[in-house]
Amino acid sequence: MIDQDIYVIVVGIMIGKLEWRKAYKEYGIGIQTYNELENLIKEKMYKISKDRPPNWDELEKVFKADWEHTAVAYHNTIHAKYPDKLPPDILVHEQVHLKQQGGTIEKTKEWWKKYIEDDKHRYTQELEAYRKQYQYIREVKKDRNQIAREAHLIATKLSSSLYGNIVTYSEALKAITNK
Ligand SMILES: [Zn+2]
Questions:
Q1: Is the pLDDT of residue 53 over 70?
Q2: The model's pTM
Q3: Is the dihedral of CA 154, 21, 100, 175 positive or negative?
Q4: 60 CA from centroid of ligand 1 (Å)
Q5: Do residues 55 and 79 both lie within one domain?
Q6: Which residues, listed in sequence order, are joined to residue 77 by a DSSP beta bridge?
Q7: Which residues constitute the domain of residue 12?
Q8: Phi, psi at residue 51, to the nearest 5°?
Q9: Ligand 1 geometric centre to CA of 94 (Å)
Q10: Cα 16 from chain centroid?
């Protein structure tokens, strides 16, 4: 029995690793550990689409969003004009929004409604996503100057008109880097 158990475990790990490689190759997603991958598979992995999200017209109107340069998480899909060019840290960011949206269409619609209407709520949601994005950058990039540059870019973006100037640059930088 023990031999059989070990056999099952080994085959399980081999299949798991193949899935991991496939997922990484297909999506280029920011998976750092096997456990993270297992969670993504369990949660049903998200899709990627080149089409505009269902609420695009509203986003364009409210935030003056530019389809050329915007990635949008909606329900179970990350939408972007050029998905192949999305860097892994942006995918990490959008994955956080997919989780926040709660997995159903109804919850996603509610999430977006609140996101658009409520500045404070929008800030908490974006801060969580940008913090995770920054953590990922810190894990994969070794160069301290590059990490500092990325923190600067994130703080600039988070404090910009895109999110309705919800926070100052220095507050954003502090909140993202924990300094
Ligand atoms: Zn975001």
A1: yes
A2: 0.75
A3: negative
A4: 15
A5: yes
A6: 47, 74
A7: 1-45
A8: -85, 155
A9: 6
A10: 23
